[in-house]
Amino acid sequence: MGILSLISLWFIPILIGFILLYGTFKGVPTYESFVEGGKEGIKIAISIIPFLVGMLVAISVFRASGALDYLMEFIRPALKSIGVPAEIVPLAIIRPISGTAALGMTADLIAAHGPDSFIGRLASVLQGSTDTTFYVLTVYFGAVGIRKMGDALKVGLLADVAGIAAAILVVVYIWY
After folding, report:
1. 17, 34, 83, 101, 125 from 155: Cα distances, Å
2. pTM reported for the whole predicted model
3. Alpha carbon distance 50, 138 (integer Å)
4. CB 98 within 8 A of CB 132
5. Three-class DSSP category at 8
6. Of 108, 152, 102, which Cα lies nearest the Cα of 128?
7. Residue 51: per-residue pLDDT
8. 8 Å CB contact between 105 and 70
9. Pair 85, 119: CB distance under 8 Å
10. What is the mean pLDDT of the chain?
11. Which long-range contacts (CB under 8 A, 24 or more apart) does 141-146 make?
C-alpha cells in the first residue's frame, strides 16, 4: 500500500479523533454536541423532502413532455455552426437542476459515444465544471426559509454558463 493510500485511509478517522479529543480537552461536551448535531441533521433532512420531490417532478415533466427534445431540435443548427454537439445540450440544461439526473445523462453519453470521444470528454468536463444551482437554491435556501433568491439565482446561472463555456473551450483546446 502506497503512502498516499495510507494517508487517505487514516486521515478522516484521525481528524475526527483529534476534534473529539481537543473538544474534550477544552471542556466541550463532545458526545452531547454530536447527538445535538445529529438531531439537527435529521430535522434538516426531513424539511428538504418536499423541495426534493418538487424538483424531481419538475424534471420528469420537462423530459416526459417532449419539451427537452423540442428545444434540442430548435437550437441544433446554431450549435452545429459553432461546433458544439447537440447531444450535450440536455446535460447542460439538466446539470443546474439535478446532479443525479446529470450523472445519469453523462453515463449515457459516455456509453453511447465512448469515454475518449469529444462528446464523452465534454460531458465529463461539463459534469465537473457546473453546479446544481436550482437544487441548491430550492433545497438549501428553502430549508432555512430564504425566499428572496433572485440575485443568487442570477449569479448561479451565470456561473453555470461560464462553466459550460469553459468546459467547451478546455476540451477543444486540450483534445482537438
Report:
1. 38, 35, 27, 22, 21
2. 0.65
3. 10
4. yes
5. helix
6. 102
7. 73
8. no
9. yes
10. 86
11. 142/48, 142/51, 143/44, 143/47, 143/48, 143/51
